[in-house]
Design a protein that fits this description.
The chain is of the alpha/beta class. The protein contains 18 helices and 13 strands. Strands 5-2-1-6-7-8 form a 6-stranded parallel beta sheet, sandwiched between helices. Strands 9-10-11 form a 3-stranded antiparallel beta sheet, covered by helices on one side. Strands 3-4 form a two-stranded antiparallel sheet. Helix 2 (about 30-40) crosses helix 8 (about 185-210) and helix 8 (about 185-210) packs across helix 9. The chain starts with 6 loop residues before the first helix and ends in a 7-residue tail after the last helix. About 30% of the residues are buried.
Length: about 425
């Protein structure tokens, strides 16, 4: 069966690419780096993913779940699939002098290098920014680490939930009573990838003026501290220490989850007008004129009594009843959807947030998350599937370096692509 192709997908296939002509050498693995380079690939960059021979990116083994393949290759990790579309994979051995030499030769042909080795590791191999800019002065070199390349923690290993803990996110996440909890997705990793990709794009724009590349240093720790945002500002400027409030908001009341007669929903009243409207929707208009709740500061001060009152009202009716009532208002609200309900939401289909691509599975297809930004003239596109390990080694070396099959075979015998 042919996959359904939406009008937007047809437009994506025919449109020019925003980053066409930009080539990225991706030396990263796991999450933050691969997410960054996937975003660049979605915008049209040619991303060459360099992986360890025989093993590849660690996330190839992250699972279950795995997606069984029908083309003779091992089952694909859905974790790996989520981060590596629009890339080509080559394998190079960083412990082999010929493999290291190939990395340097490829960097000379690329616009961007992204890496997330321990600070100083690549420099020791002759592949740091200072060394590679000698062969490519226009190179934009982005280093992603756990804690940055200076300071007392520069050599520490950093992973998402560890840095989220050190950087304060866990201390403000979870119910008021009980232990801290992590966010359901690796938000620190993902946001680091977002920061890195935007910095790379800024450096490419700057290069248009200076004709020079530059080094970008970003880390999970700095990302997490920056992400404290309003919470961090409240502490730095007012000495206010946030606490765990479940789904509630430290400075806005009401703005949280409420239990209904048969489930849960989230609703907010972010100003006085909305609060009055909420009270009417709950058949409790008197609350809107209650002196204790007339302004947001008063509602914050009287949080406990107000939330207890609203909770009692919400529990009188099932979720569907409240959603129907709230739909007639201008209030922000929504059900607490499980994933099956998320992907069944009409808005998901309307905004092309599920992309279907032919893939060697039992169904002949795989599905990918859509692009969160829609560009009118140079839209993102899903051009290539997540690659098999080393799938493009020979093609990339021939295309970029002009190496013949015989030369590539010689490099293989010398261990450049792993133990021969």
């Amino acid at each position: 069966t042919e996959p359904t192709v939406t009008r937007n997908e047809q437009h994506m296939a025919a449109a020019p690419l925003a980053l066409k002509g930009i080539r990225v050498l991706d030396l990263s693995r796991i999450l933050a780096g691969p997410y960054c380079t996937m975003l660049l690939g979605d915008y049209g960059a040619d991303v060459i993913k360099v992986e360890l021979p025989g093993k590849g990116d660690d996330t190839r083994a992250y699972g279950p779940p795995f997606l069984p393949l029908t083309d003779g290759h091992p089952p694909a990790s859905t974790y790996f699939l989520s981060l590596n579309r629009n890339k080509r994979s080559i394998t190079l051995d960083f412990k082999n002098e010929h493999g290291v030499k190939l990395v340097k030769e490829l960097a000379a042909k690329c616009d961007v290098v992204v890496e997330n080795f321990v600070p100083g590791k690549l420099s020791a191999l002759g592949l740091g920014y200072e060394q590679l800019k000698e062969v490519n002065p226009r190179l934009v070199y982005c280093s992603i680490s756990g804690f940055g390349d200076t300071g007392p923690d520069r050599d520490r290993t950093g992973y998402d939930v560890i840095v989220a803990s050190i950087g304060g996110l866990l201390s403000i996440t979870g119910p008021p009573e009980g232990p801290s909890v992590k966010v359901g997705i690796p938000v620190t990793d993902l946001c680091t990838g977002l920061f890195a990709s935007s910095a790379i794009l800024a450096a490419i724009v700057a290069r248009g003026t200076t004709n020079q590349g530059q080094h970008i240093s970003c880390s999970l720790f700095e990302t997490q501290v920056a992400m404290l945002s309003t919470i961090g500002s409240a502490y730095l400027n007012a000495g206010h220490t946030a606490r765990r409030l479940g789904t509630a908001h430290d400075s806005i009341v009401p703005y949280q989850l409420f239990r209904t007669a048969d489930g849960e929903l989230v609703v907010g009243a972010l100003n006085n007008k909305q609060f009055v409207e909420l009270c009417h929707a709950l058949d409790a208009p008197h609350l809107g004129s209650d002196p204790r709740f007339l302004t947001n500061p008063l509602r914050v001060a009287n949080r406990t009594v107000l939330i207890d009152t609203l909770s009692t009202l919400f529990q009188k009716q099932p979720t569907a009843t409240w959603l129907a009532r709230l739909r007639e208002t201008e209030l922000p609200y929504g059900p607490v959807n499980t994933l099956d309900k998320v992907f069944a939401e009409p808005q998901v289909a309307a905004r092309d947030m599920i992309l279907t691509k032919d893939f060697p599975t039992a169904t002949g297809q795989a599905r990918f998350l859509g692009f969160p930004v829609k560009m009118s003239d140079t839209p993102c596109s899903l051009r290539t599937l997540p690659p098999h390990l080393g799938e493009h080694t020979a093609a990339v070396l021939n295309e970029l370096l002009g190496y013949s099959p015989a030369h590539i075979d010689t490099l293989r015998s010398l261990g450049a692509f792993g133990r021969p």
